[in-house]
Amino acid sequence: MARSRFAPDRGLSFRMGMTMVVLALLYVVLIGAISYGTGAIWLGVLIGLGVLWGQWYFSDKLALSGMGAREVSAAEEPALHAMIDRLCALADMPKPRVAVSDTDLPNAFAAGRSPERAVVCVTRGIQRRLDERELEAVLSHELSHVAHRDVLVMTVASVVGVLAGFLTKMLLWSGLGNNRGGNNNAAIMVLIVTVVAAVVYGVSFVLTRLLSRYRELAADRAGAILTGQPSALASALTKISGEMAQIPRKDLRAAEPYNAFFFVPALTGKIDIASLFASHPPLEKRLAQLSRISVELGRE
Question: Which residue range forms the structural domain that includes residue 102?
Fold first, then answer.
């Protein structure tokens, strides 16, 4: 993780390392599948590296654009900048860029490929609903994602799933492989590569979900310890989770692709098939952890 005063988390570091190793292997398999499907190794490598670079380099811009957010100066948002200034000084870390989204969806997220190039974004909805202590607790949570570098890992990890989905659609729509023999051979080739892409997508999806749930608990813990106010974070979690039911479904559906990066997931009310596919741990588990931290800090 980055050098800061945020509490280190060896479990998070181990999970990030293992996730990256497994996804790197899947990435190699996927590049091979693209090369096989197109009949050109250079094309598979070019597509794979191009998607990886684009996702890595433009991740913050893509996230801000998707949420309709814009960067704001200290003159535009003095209170918000002052909070982040205090937290960055407390954590001894570089100050990220600050952005605001005009949506009423109460949420926050961090994005960026490094602590020096990170951005922390809050919505107007969360600003209206939380008091100063609660918002500062949420910002501490988001800054811990930047300090732990799990924002970068989640960004890179999502590339495999994006590329696998792209490959599957490309094969189904264009019928690649028709130039490599008879129609039967071409159909078999397309089927095999599509199955490989689908399996890679499924594995990468599960891995990123597992990492996403753990990193949220790690950020809750590190953020609460840094500020010394786990009750403020618990209050923010409870308040925002309750307010989600009041958000129009169309707004929740539009925000769902960014759930893995949100402070609280934007849910449309549907129940997940299994907790394995949830991007965040249950609210009860997050609150129980914060309660334990509060007791530990009280003893100290």
Answer: 10-299
